[in-house]
Each structure stands twice: as C-alpha cells, then as structure tokens.
Amino acid sequence: MGTSTSTVPSMPQKRQPLLTTRQISVAAILGGLSLVTEAFGLTLPGYLPGVNFNLVGTYLTVATMAAGPLGGIIVTILDSFTSSVGFYGLPFYWPHVFLLALFYKRIYAINNVVLKVVAFWAVTAVALFFQYWGWFFLYVYVFKFYTSIWPLAIYNFVAPGYPYWVFLGVYALIPTVVLLTAPNFVRPTWNFPYLKWITLAAAVLTVIAVGATL
User: Fold this and answer.
1) What are the pLDDT digits (tens) for 35-72?
2) Is residue 10 part of a domain?
C-alpha cells in the first residue's frame, strides 16, 4: 500500500510593526513636551539670532532610545511647529537620530555600567558632531548668518564657551540618567529595516551639503 502524506499549510508570518502603540505614545508625548517648551521659550540664550540652546536634543534622544529612529523623527517634526528655525532645521536632526539608533542596541546590551555610559556619550558626541555640520550648512546657505562655514566651526568647537559641549550635555545627560535608572523604559524593542544603509546615506548627504558651503 502506498502512503499518503499531507502537508499542513504554513501560517503567514505576522509582520512586526515599525512602532508599537506604546512607542508611538512615548514619541508623541516627548514630541509634545518639546513643542511646548519651545513655544514657552524654555531655552537658554543662543549664540546666533534665532538660535537657542533648546531641549529638543533631550527629547529626541530619549525617544530614539525608546522608540527607534521613527520616535526621534516624530519628536523633531512636532518640535518644528514652534522651533525658532521652523521646519528648515527638521532634516538636520535626522543623521543624529539614525547614527544613535544604529549603535544604541549594542550600547544597551553592555553590562558594565561605566563602559555603557562612556559608549553612550561617545556615540552621542559623534552623532552631534555630524548634526552640527548640517546646521552649519543651514546657517550659511539658507539663513546666511555667515559667508563661510569656518567661523561657525571654530566658535563651536574651539573658541571659549564651546557651544558644542553645552549641547552635548543637553543631548546626553538626562538620557544617561534615564538609561541607568529606568532601563525598561528605553529598552530597544523597536524594529527599523535598512538602518545601516539609511544612516550611511544620511551621513553622505551631510558631507555633500557641507561641501557645498566650502
């Protein structure tokens, strides 16, 4: 007698959403807080007309940690409604968001607390450095505050006052506290396909934009 075999139809795999309802809520709340703090002028005086030390960096960092790149992007979109530079600055936050997200899961998995903090600040510092050059392009090419990018670079990275380091504290200090005291809140359970290539593309576009001002 022959034997018959029956095949059980495979169940279609459930596609993992880019953001869960919780992650969307976290990003929306942080974005709303950023919008409100900008609207009420809760910023430190800046070093150029229309430029302040705002708190969007804190919100977008925590949102990126908890909800991935889309979380950080949601914060920047909401912040732009009341930002002093409006939507002009919107895309110049995104290389930072993508670069932080690219390394954050590895940082989160580090068990040694000191090494985790050092790695988090190092990645944030590099991401902010890339972000700064994009904003230099904005100030020179769009707002025309300067005719050259170099006075901005010297003032922000070399001259006394070092605005870069002030912003690094804005972007990293409170998120570090959250990472250490509420790790479950910023556990990276989010999904974002092709993150490596999108981050590379964002970095290349930043270099091209900066090169156009040299």
Assistant:
1) 998 888 776 655 554 455 678 999 999 999 999 999 99
2) no
Name the token pair of 1: 């007698």
Q: Is the dihedral of CA 58, 63, 68, 69 positive or negative?
A: negative
In angstroms, the CA 28 to CA 25 distance is 5
206 within a domain of the structure (yes/no)? yes
> Residue 65 maps to which CATH number?
1.10.1760.20
In contact, 68 and 44? CB cutoff 8 Å: no
Q: Is residue 2 part of a domain?
A: no
88 in Cβ contact with 99 (< 8 Å): no
The model's pTM is 0.85
Name the DSSP class of 140: I
Q: Is residue 166 part of a domain?
A: yes
Report which DSSP code applies to 89: G
Q: CB-based burial of residue 38 (10 Å sphere; 0-12 exposed, 13-18 middle, 19+ buried)?
A: buried
Q: What CA–CA distance (Å, rounded) separates 141 from 213?
A: 7
Helices 195-211 and 113-137: crossing angle, nearest 10°?
40
